[in-house]
Design goal:
The protein is about 75% helix and about 0% strand. With about 270 residues, it is an all-alpha fold. It is elongated. The protein starts with 9 loop residues before the first helix and ends in a 10-residue tail after the last helix.
């Protein structure tokens, strides 16, 4: 039987007769699993190529040929039985199920996008306000950069500004200030560094820095208490999906829901 599973040549595959097409229609119906379809069709293909090869091989025995024919017939009979077991109303029921499933997925996606974005705005705002102390701590570094640009060689000044950018990057929402520091650093790059232009960008950075500190300081006093109370009220409802972890009670509820058997036959 070694002949039965020998790899077929390209020529043999081209001339293999597509027996099993009748069964393939059953395999492609929605009642059959995709992986199972593929495995059976691949097996039929191998058997058909083996039969084609054996029919041209004068040294092959009748026993080998008969064995292939019996195996093909058995596979086709198995698949015919599976096709016969599929309810007549299956395709209509599954089509309706797919429509409902798509509608459910769309509704869930739209809901999640809406509530996640609504809650994430609150969470992000709290982080910005909470980082006001870290932003204030950056003031000495920012103030020193003007003297760096005026007195240090361009290469060294760029390194110092780059280090300041890394320090500021740790503060949430500092992009408006950091962007001006980057422009100041780039003004010193190349064969024609421009300290004056760099100083102008640093001045803009200081203006933006002052604005950031001012609004965050006021928000910490006037908004943070209300935002914290609001966050506490919704974090375990519409904000649940974006929390870093579930509480023990929530985890137990989720585990109970996921452990219930679900009929997934309509997914196939």
């Amino acid at each position: 039987m070694a002949l039965l599973w020998k790899e077929s040549s390209d020529d043999e595959q081209r001339h293999a007769r597509p027996r099993g097409a009748v069964v393939a229609s059953a395999l492609n119906r929605p009642g059959c699993s995709g992986d199972y379809n593929r495995r059976v069709l691949e097996r039929l293909g191998r058997l058909e190529r083996d039969r084609s090869r054996l029919s041209r091989d004068e040294t092959a025995s009748d026993e080998d040929r008969d064995s292939v024919e019996r195996t093909i017939a058995a596979v086709e009979a198995e698949m015919a039985a599976i096709e016969a077991s599929i309810p007549a109303a299956w395709e209509g029921a599954r089509s309706r199920y797919v429509e409902l499933l798509d509608a459910q997925k769309k509704a869930r996606r739209e809901y999640r996008q809406s509530v996640d974005e609504a809650y994430q705005t609150i969470a992000d705002l709290r982080v910005l306000i909470a980082d006001v102390d870290a932003l204030r701590a950056f003031e000495p570094t920012l103030s020193s950069l003007e003297g760096v640009v005026a007195n240090e060689p361009p290469e060294q000044a760029m390194d110092i500004i780059k280090a300041a950018e890394r320090e500021l990057g740790k503060v949430a929402g500092s992009g408006r200030v950091k962007g001006r520091l980057s422009k100041a650093r780039r003004a010193l790059r190349g064969n024609s560094p421009d300290p004056g232009k760099a100083a102008g960008f640093l001045a803009e950075a200081r203006e933006r820095y002052a604005e950031e500190v001012a609004w965050r300081t006021r928000a910490a006093q006037e908004l943070m208490p209300g935002l914290s109370a609001y966050d506490d009220a919704i974090r375990h409802s519409i904000g649940l999906r974006v929390q870093e972890r579930l509480t023990k009670d929530q985890a137990r509820l989720v585990a109970q829901c996921q452990s219930v058997h679900r009929d997934i036959s309509l997914y196939f």
